[in-house]
């Protein structure tokens, strides 16, 4: 019998709700949380619990997100809605799981007496391959290889929520990849908080390149392997080499840089300077000339001067990233930056957010234009909801759910999961349009 401390949140929920329930799950936050939701459903369906639409459910599990203000509010609003449903007798049980309950268990207990079970985050298992009910469309999947983070960025609550950094063993990951390949998955999205730290805990060295070699041996139906959430200082040359030479690994790298001013990076505890960041980017582009870079930045970090912000705007204009996410600094208690003086006003944060997004929009328009006339392999995600003969897909340069899409004109009937050649005929701010070749 597993030690209580190590009992999985999914197991605790299963014991609490028993069997033969009509259940539904609401997932919030990132792809990592989605994988935890898949594991919760995997565990509960072992017990003859039937997954139904929320309108027919007796038991609802809400897997919350709790890392920044806006995300916390979204999860709290959903709990309030479920509590109202229960008060109206439309629900028997409410289960709250995930990052918000890991961080604010006592508050939820006190504020929401109608909540039956409160569990924290799922503890990543090193060797066990857990049953999952996949919540992504069948043709793509998220593969979580590690959890939490060593980096301790001063604005980030995640290490405090997720605990110590954990990697799964190569054996357990390869076993899951074999399963996903059998299920005819086409696109494998590899995730963690920092996948470039993979293996430091269990193999005592960065082992993502080694893991990719093992995964590549098991991919017959899987055509694309995408790497998400990389940390700048953990990117190694052997990782760049395997990305460069393996066709199945998307020439797409997601590396949140967060800022470029060395002073701000220091206060963010990012362990990298402007000079080192620039050197890394040119090394990546030299080794993988066709690589597309996704990154994200925080505006309005405490004490960020207008000059430091303008330095970031110039950086974005000069470096011409393919995809950029911009976040306003979120004042998170129990993070080191919380205590910093010089907190930036909402008005200034909003203005900086708009200016940086505006700068990136001009870059994106220009980059998109350059695709016109090119032929790309497109993974079909779905038929267009309105236009007949039009399909919505993505190239290897578009991650699911966060990046743009490619609209494909085709007189031939296409299926979800088809990988087809398309000639790009037009470009929008973030999306492309093309004809089946
Ligand atoms: S690398 Fe990401 S998850 Fe880790 S502390 Fe920094 S922001 Fe948080």
Question: Which descriptors apply to this entry?
Answer:
pyruvate-formate lyase- activating enzyme, 437 residues, alpha/beta, binds iron/sulfur cluster, OB fold (Dihydrolipoamide Acetyltransferase, E2P), 18 strands, 3 domains, 12 helices
Task: Walk me through the structure.
This protein has 437 residues and is of the alpha/beta class. The protein has 3 domains: 4-118, Rossmann fold, CATH 3.40.50; 140-369, tm_1862 like domain (pyruvate-formate lyase- activating enzyme), CATH 3.80.30; 375-436, OB fold (Dihydrolipoamide Acetyltransferase, E2P) (Beta Barrel), CATH 2.40.50.140. 34% of the residues lie in helices and 21% in strands. The protein contains 12 helices and 18 strands. The chain has helices at 9-17, 31-45, 69-87, 99-111, 158-162, 170-182, 208-216, 237-245, 262-267, 274-287, 306-319, 346-369; strands at residues 22-27, 50-51, 59-64, 93-98, 117-118, 140-144, 146-147, 166-167, 187-191, 224-227, 249-254, 292-299, 323-328, 375-383, 390-394, 406-409, 419-427, 432-436. The strands form 4 sheets. Strands 6-9-10-11-12-13 form a 6-stranded parallel sheet. Strands 2-1-3-4-5 form a 5-stranded parallel sheet, sandwiched between helices. It has a 5-stranded mixed beta barrel with strand order 14-15-16-18-17. A hairpin with a 4-residue loop joins strand 17 and strand 18 (432-436). Helix 1 crosses helix 2 and helix 11 runs parallel beside helix 12. It is globular, with a radius of gyration of 22 Å. It starts with 8 loop residues before the first helix and ends with a strand. The mean pLDDT is 96. It binds iron/sulfur cluster. Iron/sulfur cluster is lined by residues 149, 151-153, 156, 158-159, 193-194, 231.
């Amino acid at each position: 019998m597993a030690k209580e401390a190590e009992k999985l949140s999914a197991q605790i929920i299963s014991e609490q709700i028993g069997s033969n329930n009509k259940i539904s799950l609401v997932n919030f936050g990132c792809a990592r949380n989605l994988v935890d939701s898949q594991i919760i459903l995997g565990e509960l369906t072992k017990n003859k619990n039937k997954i139904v639409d929320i309108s027919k459910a007796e038991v609802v599990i809400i897997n919350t997100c709790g890392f920044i203000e806006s995300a916390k509010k979204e999860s709290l609003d959903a709990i309030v809605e479920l509590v109202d449903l229960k008060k109206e007798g439309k629900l028997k049980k409410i289960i709250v799981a995930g990052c918000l309950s890991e961080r604010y268990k006592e508050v939820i207990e006190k504020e929401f007496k109608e909540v039956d079970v409160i569990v924290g985050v799922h503890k990543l298992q090193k060797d066990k391959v857990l049953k999952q009910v996949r919540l992504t469309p069948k043709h793509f999947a998220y593969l979580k290889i590690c959890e939490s983070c060593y980096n301790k960025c001063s604005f980030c609550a995640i290490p405090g929520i997720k605990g110590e950094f954990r990697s799964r063993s190569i054996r357990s990951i390869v076993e899951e990849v074999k399963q996903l390949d059998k299920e005819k998955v086409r696109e494998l999205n590899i995730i963690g908080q920092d996948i470039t730290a993979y293996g430091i805990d269990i193999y005592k060295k960065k082992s993502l390149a080694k893991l990719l070699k093992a995964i590549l041996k098991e991919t017959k139906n899987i055509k694309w392997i995408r790497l998400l959430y990389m940390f700048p200082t953990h990117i190694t040359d052997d990782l760049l080499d395997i990305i460069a030479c393996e066709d199945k690994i998307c020439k797409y790298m997601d590396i949140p840089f967060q800022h470029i001013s060395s002073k701000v990076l220091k206060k963010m505890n990012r362990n990298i300077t402007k000079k080192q960041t620039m050197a890394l980017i040119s090394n990546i582009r030299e080794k993988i000339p066709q690589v597309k870079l996704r990154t994200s930045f925080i505006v309005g970090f405490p004490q960020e001067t207008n000059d430091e912000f303008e330095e970031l705007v110039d950086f974005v204009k000069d470096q011409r990233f393919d995809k950029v996410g911009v976040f306003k600094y979120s004042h998170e208690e129990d993070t080191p930056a919380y205590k910093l003086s010089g907190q930036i006003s909402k008005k200034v944060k909003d203005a900086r957010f708009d200016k940086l997004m505006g700068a990136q929009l001009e870059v994106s328009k220009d980059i998109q234009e350059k695709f016109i006339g090119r032929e790309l392999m497109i993974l079909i995600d779905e038929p267009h909801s309105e236009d007949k003969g039009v399909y919505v897909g993505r190239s290897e340069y578009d991650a699911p759910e966060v990046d743009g899409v490619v609209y494909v004109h085709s007189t031939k009937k296409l299926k979800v999961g088809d990988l087809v050649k398309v000639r790009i005929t037009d470009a929008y701010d973030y999306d492309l349009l093309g004809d089946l070749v």
